[in-house]
């Protein structure tokens, strides 16, 4: 029951609504039983043609009970749903707060569609906990206890039959259903996650799938997942319907037993005949709501599985969610950055993608990281920014290890341009404001000028993923974000790879101008403009194979010199 801890905590936060739901549920249950009991009594009494005022009192009672029952039922529904929605709100905030700091780690482990299915579908499944699992059995038991106590006034054996019926219908049969439910372990949720992942990938990669003629086969794949999901759903629904019918049937048998026993007691003179209809009506009514108990096992199991699937997401790396301290820079001075024997391994790749790397960057230095594709350049940049965690070793900004610093406060001091940048549906202005929401229109226009995007207006609409811009325009728009906020570190991963030489030079001049006092780390596979750098780090197969100034490296006649010669040869062809 460990899985229920989270949802219990969320539910008990809404204590007031929980108590009111139980109170009104109990009132609705007992008034319904009393209503039908008095109706049964009224019918029998009327048949004996008593004085009219006797009947008037019972009729008034029936009317009053009818109104109270309806009002109590309304109260129960109102408070239970209000409690459920408040609990869902708290749960959504809790889930967001849990996963947000772990977003980079989580996205490496789960497909985005699966994450979406978990944080939307599984969270919503948890709403059934309160409505179907937590309070209905409590209400049902309390109504049964009140009814049995009332029935004992008239006939103890009949009260005992109702008690036995209650034990069968509320405890034994749902308990057996629950044991069966655990054994068959429904796959509905995992199929829902798989379907969501497939559909997300299909939509993201639609153009490529079309170009390579794979759209149809991918669609068939999705349809297979739809079928699996629907079959699992259908199976779960059929089982649900069967259980409800079975429980209703058992309840009916108990009511018939009450009728038979009461009839027998009347025939041997142990019970007044006028009470026969009343006791039968009591039995019918009190068992009416027991069909809800058929839903209990499935919803209990669903709650446990959904809670498990959610907790799995943030338990990926519990130690990273420990409280971290903020990072502040004295007078915004660029920090000294140090890497001490840093190694990075991914579970999916046996060899380390960065191995035993030790580097030291002085405040305000200009660094280039170069090397062949896949040599680990971007990995080092992401490690420095705290976007991924090292498997071994230490990374410091000034004296602090970044493992104990809040990522947000690190990133506040960094101007970052990654290989792929995201654009949101909206205006150019909105997309630029992402970097600095306080930038004025003049500052935004200046930023666009700096990247040679003079023709673009701030009110122009950007489509999803910036699909109405060219590759180079997208890269320039991403770079424009750098010019509207000051930062002590500039971390640029192949920032001008899609640009022509003239635009590239213009933008680099601007970057040099704006980042004069900052530490600049540029990842690049092009070996141009490197003479200006304070240090060049050369990487190969996850290792730093050379480092030094351009001049030193060219004299050294090693890996860098060979790369530079090859590049020159290519340019001269
Ligand atoms: N999330 C990941 N999981 C597993 N392996 C990864 C992951 N990200 C990167 N790698 C591997 O790490 C290695 C280094 O990747 P990295 O992106 O740092 O190279 P790079 O030098 O920047 O390459 P490029 O110039 O092509 O961008 C690659 O072999 C890549 O396959």
From TrEMBL:
Compartments where found: Cell membrane
Source taxon at top rank: Bacteria
Keyword tags: ATP-binding, Membrane, Nucleotide-binding, Transmembrane, Transmembrane helix
Membrane topology category: Multi-pass membrane protein
Keyword Transmembrane helix: yes
Family annotation (Pfam families): ABC_membrane, ABC_tran
An annotated GO BP: cell redox homeostasis
InterPro entries, per database record: AAA+_ATPase (IPR003593), ABC1_TM_dom (IPR011527), ABC1_TM_sf (IPR036640), ABC_CydC/D (IPR014223), ABC_transporter-like_ATP-bd (IPR003439), ABC_transporter-like_CS (IPR017871), P-loop_NTPase (IPR027417), Type_1_exporter (IPR039421)
Molecular function in Gene Ontology: ABC-type oligopeptide transporter activity; ATP binding; ATP hydrolysis activity
Membrane-crossing residue ranges in chain numbering: 52-72, 133-152, 158-180, 246-268
Every ABC transporter domain range: 337-566
This protein's GO CC annotations: plasma membrane
Name of this chain's protein: ABC transporter ATP-binding protein required for expression of cytochrome bd
Organism from which the protein derives: Oceanobacillus iheyensis (strain DSM 14371 / CIP 107618 / JCM 11309 / KCTC 3954 / HTE831)
């Amino acid at each position: 029951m460990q899985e229920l801890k989270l949802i219990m905590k969320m539910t008990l936060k809404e204590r007031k609504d929980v108590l009111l739901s139980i109170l009104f549920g109990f009132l609705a249950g007992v008034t319904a039983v009393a209503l039908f009991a008095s109706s049964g009594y009224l019918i029998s009494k009327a048949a004996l043609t008593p004085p009219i005022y006797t009947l008037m009192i019972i009729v008034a009672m029936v009317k009053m009970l009818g109104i109270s029952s309806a009002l109590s039922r309304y109260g129960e529904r109102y408070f239970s749903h209000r409690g459920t929605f408040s609990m869902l709100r708290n749960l959504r905030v809790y889930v967001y707060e849990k996963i947000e700091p772990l977003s980079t780690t989580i996205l490496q482990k789960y497909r985005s569609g699966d994450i979406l299915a978990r944080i939307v579908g599984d969270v919503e499944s948890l709403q059934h906990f309160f409505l179907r699992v937590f309070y209905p059995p409590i209400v049902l038991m309390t109504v049964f206890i009140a009814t049995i106590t009332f029935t004992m006034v008239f006939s103890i054996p009949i009260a005992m039959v109702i008690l036995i019926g209650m034990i069968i219908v509320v405890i034994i049969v749902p308990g057996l259903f629950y044991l069966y439910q655990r054994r068959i372990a429904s796959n509905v949720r995992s199929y829902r996650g798989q379907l969501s992942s497939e559909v997300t990938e299909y939509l993201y990669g639609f153009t490529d799938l079309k170009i390579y003629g794979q759209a149809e086969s991918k669609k068939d794949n999705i349809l297979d997942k739809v079928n699996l999901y629907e079959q699992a759903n259908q199976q779960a629904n059929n089982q649900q319907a069967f259980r409800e019918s079975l429980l209703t049937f058992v309840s009916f048998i108990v009511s018939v037993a009450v009728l038979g026993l009461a009839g027998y007691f009347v025939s041997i003179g142990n019970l007044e005949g006028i009470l026969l209809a009343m006791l039968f009506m009591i039995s019918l009514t009190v068992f009416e709501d027991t069909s809800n108990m058929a839903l209990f096992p499935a919803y209990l199991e669903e709650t446990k599985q959904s809670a498990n699937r959610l907790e799995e997401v943030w338990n990926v790396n519990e130690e990273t969610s420990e409280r971290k301290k903020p990072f502040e820079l004295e007078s915004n001075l660029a920090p000294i950055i140090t890497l001490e024997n840093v190694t990075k391994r991914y579970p999916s790749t046996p060899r380390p993608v960065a191995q035993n790397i030790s580097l030291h960057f002085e405040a305000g230095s200009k660094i280039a990281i170069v090397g062949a594709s896949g040599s680990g350049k971007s990995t080092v940049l992401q490690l420095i920014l705290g976007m991924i965690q090292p498997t071994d070793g230490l990374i410091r900004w000034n004296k602090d290890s970044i493992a104990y610093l809040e990522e947000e406060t690190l990133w506040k001091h960094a101007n970052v341009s990654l290989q792929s940048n995201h654009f949101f549906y909206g205006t150019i202005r909105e997309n630029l404001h992402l970097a600095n929401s306080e930038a004025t229109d003049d500052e935004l226009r200046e930023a666009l000028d700096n990247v040679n995007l003079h023709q673009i207006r701030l009110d122009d609409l950007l489509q999803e993923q910036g699909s109405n811009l060219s590759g180079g325009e997208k890269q320039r728009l991403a770079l424009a974000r750098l010019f509207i906020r000051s930062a002590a570190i500039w971390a640029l991963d192949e920032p001008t790879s899609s640009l022509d030489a003239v635009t590239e030079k213009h933008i680099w001049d601007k970057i040099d101008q704006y980042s004069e006092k900052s530490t600049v780390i540029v990842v690049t596979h092009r070996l141009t403009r490197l003479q200006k750098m304070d240090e060049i780090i050369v990487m190969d197969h996850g290792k730093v194979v050379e480092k030094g100034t351009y001049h030193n490296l060219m004299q050294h006649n090693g890996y860098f010199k060979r790369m530079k010669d090859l590049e020159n040869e290519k340019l001269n062809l």
